[in-house]
């Protein structure tokens, strides 16, 4: 699979971009030249130069340092929010697809209702209950994405449970849990990995949107979406405040998309054009 992945130009670009995100997030305390919270109005709105490569914001904070530490927030969102959606969605999808009947109808009804509400609406409800913050954004994104995993896993289970090896396992008295874990789950891995990778990029964009609206990551924590919100009123006089975090968001989302496409083709080329996000 890895050999096929690195033969894809898009997959290689995705690996490079996401690999860079991982390195920056892990090494942020080492490579960030300045504190992300230290303010100095004497150097506010400083244009990019040798001392501040990406300039400073309205509080005199170094943009490069904040972009670097913002990678940690984005990576946390990509892993945790998408992981919550995967855990909930895959569990319900396995149950719905394998057992069918009223259980399937109930889960599909709940999934249909979930699809009707956008991420921002979940975030607004959670903000009223627990207040704005990163965890509010994480839970809102997870709640809005679980139905996608549920539908995907359910479809895979409906196909796999009709295969001869599943019927043979049932004939020899294997338990339902054993059949699901030994036969159903492994045969659903390829498409799940692809969708998980693609949704990670979408989750980062969603967090940036929620932070931009003020219901996601809160100051002074550096978040790319929050940086966009803080710099929008200075877009004509100090465009670098918004340009660089915007570029970071775009590169990471593109990276996850290219990596997901590459993994799709490497795992199973037949999935091309079948998996829709």
CATH architecture: Orthogonal Bundle
| Helical content band | over 70%
Q: Could you name the CATH class?
A: Mainly Alpha
Report the total helices: 12
Structure notes:
With 277 residues, the chain is mainly alpha-helical. The chain has a single domain, classed as MetI-like (MetI-like fold, Orthogonal Bundle). It contains twelve helices and no strands. Helix 8 packs antiparallel against helix 9. The protein starts with a helix and ends in a 10-residue tail after the last helix. The C terminus is likely disordered.
Features:
mainly alpha; elongated; MetI-like fold; about 280 residues
Concise structural overview:
The chain has 277 residues and is mainly α. 71% of the residues lie in helices and 0% in strands.
Fold blueprint:
Elements: H1 2-6, H2 9-26, H3 28-31, H4 63-99, H5 101-115, H6 119-130, H7 134-160, H8 164-171, H9 176-184, H10 189-213, H11 224-231, H12 240-267
């Amino acid at each position: 699979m890895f050999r096929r992945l690195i033969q894809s130009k898009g997959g290689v670009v995705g690996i490079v971009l996401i690999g860079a995100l991982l390195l920056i997030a892990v090494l942020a305390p080492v490579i960030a030249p300045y504190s992300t919270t230290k303010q100095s109005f004497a150097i506010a709105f400083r244009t990019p130069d040798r001392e501040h490569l990406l300039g400073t914001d309205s509080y005199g904070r170094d943009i490069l340092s904040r972009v670097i530490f913002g990678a940690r927030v984005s990576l946390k969102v990509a892993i945790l929010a998408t992981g919550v959606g995967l855990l909930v969605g895959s569990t319900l999808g396995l149950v719905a697809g394998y057992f069918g009947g009223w259980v399937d109808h109930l889960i599909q009804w709940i999934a249909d209702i979930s699809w009707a509400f956008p991420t921002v609406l979940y975030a607004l409800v959670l903000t009223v209950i627990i207040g704005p913050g990163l965890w509010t954004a994480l839970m809102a994104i997870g709640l809005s994405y679980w139905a996608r995993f549920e539908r995907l896993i359910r479809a895979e289970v409906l196909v796999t449970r009709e295969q001869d090896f599943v019927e043979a396992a049932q004939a020899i008295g294997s338990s339902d849990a054993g059949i699901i874990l030994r036969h159903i789950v492994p045969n659903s891995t390829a498409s799940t990995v692809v969708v998980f990778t693609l949704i990670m990029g979408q989750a980062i964009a969603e967090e940036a949107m929620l932070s931009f609206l003020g219901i996601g990551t809160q100051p002074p924590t550096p978040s790319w979406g929050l940086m966009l919100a803080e710099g929008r009123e200075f877009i004509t006089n100090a465009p670098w405040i918004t340009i660089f975090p915007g570029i970071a968001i775009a590169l990471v989302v593109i990276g996850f998309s290219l990596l997901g496409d590459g993994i799709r083709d490497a795992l199973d080329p037949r999935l091309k054009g079948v998996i829709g996000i």
